[in-house]
Each structure stands twice: as C-alpha cells, then as structure tokens.
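Question thread 4412

I'm putting together a teaching handout and wanted feedback from people who do this every day. The idea is simple: show students a protein as raw sequence, then show them the structure tokens that encode its fold, then repeat with a second protein so they can compare. Below is the first pair exactly as I plan to print it.
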Amino acid sequence: MISSKPVRVGLDAMLTPDNCALVLIDHQPFQVSGVKNIDAALMINNVVMLAKAAKAFNVPTLLTTVLKDRGGNLIKPLQDVFPEQTPIDRTTINTWEDESCVRWVEGTGRRKIVIAALWTEICLAFPVIHALGEGYEVYFVTDASGGTSVEAHEMGIQRMIQAGAIPLTAGVFMAELQRDWAREETAGKVAEIMLEHGGASATNLAWELQLLAGRPGSGA
C-alpha cells in the first residue's frame, strides 16, 4: 500500500483535461436491469454525457465489461461514443485486480482517476478503494453509476468517501474540464453535449439560443 496525501483544495485539486483519466465499468444490460436507486434511462443519459465530455476534452477513457457473454455487451449508446474501442472484458469483480486494466491506467501517466460503474456498492467501490491504496487520487461519478437499492448505492458512496475518494456528477466533470468559456476550442462541444443530455438546463439553453438567433449580430 502506498501512502498518499491528495490535494483537496486549491487549483491543483481541480480536474483538467491533462491530469485525469476516466474508467467506465460494466455498463451492460444485466447490470443496468439491477439498478434501483436511479431511473435507468437517466443513468444511461448521464454516463453517455460523461463519456462525451471526456472525448471532447481528449481525456483518456477506458471501457470495460465483466463476462460480456453472460451480462451482455456494453450498452450501445455508450459504445457509440468510442466505436473504435473494444472494451476490456474481465472475469474479476474488482476491476483493479485485472492486470490489463491496471496497465492501461498506468500507461496514461495520470494520477487522478475518475470512475463510474455498475453497481455502486461493488464494481465501483472495490476498484475505487483499491486504487486509493495504490496512491491514486480517485473521483467517482455518482449519477453515472447505480446500485441495486437506494441503501446499497448510498452505503457504497459513504464507504468510498470514508476511504478518501471524491464524489462528483457527470455535469460537474464536464464543467470542471471547461472552467472558462473563453476556451472556445471546447465551449461549442460542451454546449452541444448540454443540448443533448442536459435535461432542464438543455431546454433553457435551447431557448436562449432561439432568442439569440433572432438578434442580428448575436453570432448564435
């Protein structure tokens, strides 16, 4: 076990496109069917938004499944974000016990690892706790993950926080990578992702764009 003292405050505590990697674990039909703490369609929307945000900012992203011949292939909306990538298929319940997955993370050279998984209390909590013990700073995405009950999800979250992991949501991940609307090379991509997956915020943004489009010189 490697002792680490991750930075909790200040600018260095923030995620950037250059300091983190994303790992998405077991978003498969069998696991989706067992999610009970959040509407499955909403969870799928959130994990796809998370993946699209990572792609927009060129954050290294790993897709992984467990026993796909039984649990099913990765859900199509998520696979479609990275059509060129074949998910690593594991037998281990704990992703951090799969050598291929750990080698992939090591190969990124990133020490901040962001993880979302099904289910929260098992396939998310296990690798989060394990990676913390290896000295990584670990963030987990609560609304792109799901547990087999409200209690299971919440207990998994508490366990990870007690171990030192940092919770966030898919929208926060994207906003944290952008952080400044003057970064025009990604601002348009963020707006597009928001329009597709942002719920009520997407409706408001669409309305604002409609109003701006009616004003000459607005650039909308």
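The second pair follows. I'd like the answer to focus on this one:
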Amino acid sequence: MEERTYLRNPATLEAPAVRPTSAKVDVQDNQTALALCGNQNENLKLMERRLGVRVGQRGTELLLSGPSDAVAFAVRLVENLEEMIRAGRTVYREDVEQAIKVLGRGGAESLGEVMLGPVLKSSGNRQIAPKSIAQKRYVEAIRSHDIVFGIGPAGTGKTYLAMAMAVAFLQERKVKRIILARPAVEAGEKLGFLPGDLAEKVNPYLRPLYDALHDMMAGDRASALVEQGVIEVAPLAFMRGRTLNDAFVILDEAQNTTVEQMKMFLTRLGYNSKAVVTGDVTQVDLPVGKMSGLNHARSILRNIEGICFSEFSEVDVVRHPLVQEVIRAYDKFEVAKAEASKEAAAVEAQDPSEPETPEVEEEPIAT
C-alpha cells in the first residue's frame, strides 16, 4: 500500500480526504521547535508512547509516522501545542499529557481555549491555568458564581485551582482576605494525642493547604500575610459564629463535614464574598451511618441560582498518569462489589434460609 505524506504548511487548509500514514509538520522557527520538543525531547518521547507513533525531528520539521488515525491526531496535537507556544505559554511534559486528554475527549473547545489564559503565576514564575475542559469550566464557574462546589476524585486540581483563584482575587483587590478551612477528621488512621497548643494540634490537617499556598506565593510573602491575618488557615470549627465579608473562603475535604457543619459553613458567607467547597464523595472518613454534608448539599442545593456544582472524573486527573489508572481500578472494584451484593441479596430472597422441619406425630405413651 502506498504511503501518503501530509504537509501541513501551507496544505493544512487543503488536507486530502484520505487520512495519512505519515506527516511532516514544519513549525518554521527553531525556538518554537525546541520548546515543542521539550528538555531532551521529552515531549516527543511522550507523544510516541501515548499515541503509538514515531516522531523524528529535522531542523524545524517534525516527521510523524504510524497508524493513520494516530498520525492525524498527532498532527492536530502538534498544531495546538505550537499555538500555545506562540501565545507565550511554556509547554511542559505534563502539559502534553493533559493536551492529549483534552483533544482525545473531543468537544468544541480547542486546546488554546482550554489551557491559555492563566489564572495566576506561581512563585516559581510558572503559569497556573486549567488543564482540562472540566477545570476550565470550574474556573469560569468561580468567576461567575458566589458559591461553587468542586466535586471529584483526588488529583483533579479542585483545591489547587480554587487556591489560585483566591490568590488572584486578593492580588486584584477583589477581596480583602482569604480563609482556608478544613474539617479535622482522621483519614482512617489514629493519630493519637498531639502535643502543643490548639494550632499545633490541627496543623497536620491543614498542611496541604499551606503547601499549595507556598507554591503560589513566595514563602516569606505567604508567611507575612498569614501573620497579618490577610490569609487565615483554620479548622472548620473556627468558622462558627462568624460573618465573612470581603473574603474568598475555601472549604477543603468537604466530604468529611456533617450536614450540620456544612449548613454552618455556608451560612457564614457575607457581602462581597465567594465560597468554594471541594471534596471527593468516594473518600468519606465520617463514622458509619453519619451522612456527608457534601452529599446532602449536592442533593438539596443544585437548583439554587448563584450556586454551581462542577463535577470532575478520573480523566481530569493532573497528577502522575498512574493516579488515573488507580482511580479506575478502585471504581471498578466498587462496582463489582455492589453487583455481587445485589446478586447475593437476590439469591437470599428467592431461597428460604432454613427449610421447614415437618412435624412428627408423637406416639402415645403406654401406661
């Protein structure tokens, strides 16, 4: 079979009807080509592994070969990444990973529409921006709604993006302070008696929030704002009885709130304030029989104007690629477990637990 070659420049607009088995993409610029390839060609190697194509480089040209569908997808991926680079965005290995997910899911949005337009520049001068369609819609929801729920599995960027939006709002003087809260619930393990004052006792529960905060701001700047009370990191119990005006409030790990705690938190919101509530309903650490406040809120608040629920799934995971596979494996296990329980219940309902013992007529005792 004759191998076809697809030249993108300037023929992209006049692409042949038959999908190619090889392609040549010329980015026409050495600096763009280097940025696209990544450090030691790590971006190209990732494309090869994920898409099942071979990628070679000759000057400013990328030579792609492999199955026709994979090559066509790779050409589209390269074009979108080139657009991002020309817009001033540095493309890292994890950006390529997420770009493959975004383009693979389809939809009207291009990669640039999803991943361009940074929310914030981190302390390391890296841009923090959405990396999936769900993340983009989540950021838009935070901008346009006063209460937003971000619900989904670990690693989908729910808390991280909420923190980035909070810091951006503070820098733009849209709010006067940031309040970060978490319920202090043990995640399966027993931590025992913790030494120190109250702040030191709850610090292990709040450490992830501090980590994210220091990733977005220089350490001394973040510490200074915490000391001044501009940024407050506290356990959820500290919210009781307060009215939070001119504040960006984040409640993390909300699946571990009770119904009463969730109501208490949501009713703290004052004028010119935003609240973002994040959690994973599959990781509830409350005592058995205690309903999660996050699940309850999702069931009764969904149709209230001004409140938005943003749902994430395993395809939105932005951590190590294996995290997505781990989540899928656990979900598959839970589904199989539920189906086995249903089958066992059905069998038990059909068959009586114990067969009835026939009555034996006793013989009269001779006197």
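Top answer:
Good format. For the second protein you could add a caption like this: Confidence is low (pLDDT under 50) at residues 9-18, 187-192. The first helix runs from residue 30 to 37.
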